[in-house]
């Protein structure tokens, strides 16, 4: 009787283990889609805070690698993007405008972003959305507006996260698009002038 009870107990435990295995949920793939069409590329954050606390910190920081970091080509380096942004900011400041400026690479990834004191809360994001328009159409936002006026069907190609406001301009290197710069916070033609000044400050170093 005791042996039979042990055998029965073992069978029940094995069945329970199989059931638990069968009922365990399958991990869902990570959602890498931006939460809304208005978000920037890569702007998703689907890691629960409880999981964030379990992420290992890795080893302590040690000596730095002496090999220089080089951006993939074609692209604009972070150093030049920062210089272009600072020049555009200073150009508009000289005209009495406090603006925001964003510089991206040819894929729309932000390389530099600056906001002068006293700018609008959404100004920086507006500049970022303009850079998406530029890299998407390979032309300035003002040129795109003119193109849409000539051919309204082009508007159907504009994505929800793109801005049609002037101030965004492409950055070219030997006929290849390497980035975009956009300003926000001044009048249309002043924004373009400041963006163009930013490009002019780095054109010889691209």
UniProtKB/TrEMBL annotation:
Pfam families: HbpS-like. Keywords: Signal. The keyword Signal applies. It comes from the Bacteria. PANTHER family: SLR1406 PROTEIN. Residues 26-38 have a biased composition (Pro residues). It comes from Novosphingobium umbonatum. InterPro entries: GlcG_carb_metab_protein, PduO/GlcC-like, PduO/GlcC-like_sf. Coiled coil: none annotated. Gene3D superfamilies: Haem-degrading domain. Residues 20-45 are annotated as: Disordered. The keyword Transport does not apply. This is Heme-binding protein. Residues 1-22 form the signal peptide.
